[in-house]
Design brief:
The structure is a single chain. Helix 4 packs across helix 6 (about 130-140). The protein has helices at about 20-25, 25-45, 55, 90-95, 105-110, 130-140, and strands at about 45-50, 60-65, 70-75, 80-85, 120-125. By secondary structure, the chain is α+β, with helices and mostly antiparallel strands.
């Protein structure tokens, strides 16, 4: 998916608040954003990290631990894009859950170039796939923490 066609949150010197992000992405996308944030909080002990990735990508919210990114959210006018990078092992695991995913996500996976280190999936919300799809992709990368 060409990500450069989306209006991003720019301005290195103006770190956006959560409310500003939610207003920028719009009401419909905000529901998806908050559902994914809740999933991350409940299932993983990763701290969200808001970073500026230059004038092309703008502000992003990443969930990282020990130098490895689990998932990144790119706020965009009227929506957002979720980036999940599936390594070689996760690409193999994908085949095991293929039947549980929406046709949007299967098509995205099939059309995404296979690099030496895996596939970089960019899922546009709320138009593409479901929150459940994204949660399953994240869980391919790392199992959620056990329930307490």
């Amino acid at each position: 998916m060409a990500m450069g066609n989306r209006e991003r949150m720019l301005g290195r010197n103006h770190e956006p608040t959560k409310d500003q992000i939610l207003e920028f992405i719009g009401a419909k996308a905000s529901k998806s954003w908050m559902a994914l944030e809740e999933f991350m909080t409940k299932k993983y002990d990763f701290q969200p990290e808001l970073s500026y990735w230059g004038d092309k990508n703008g502000w992003i919210l990443r969930y990282r631990k020990s130098g490895k990114t689990l998932v990144s959210f790119y706020p965009e006018k009227g929506g957002f894009t979720v980036q999940v990078i599936l390594g070689k092992r996760e690409v193999e695991k994908f085949e095991g859950i293929r039947g549980e995913l929406s046709t949007d996500i299967i098509r995205l996976f099939d059309e995404t170039e296979q690099f030496h280190d895996g596939r970089w999936l960019y899922v546009r919300q709320p138009e593409m796939g479901t929150i459940n799809d994204i949660e399953k992709l994240i869980q391919l990368k790392r199992n959620p923490r056990p329930k307490t």
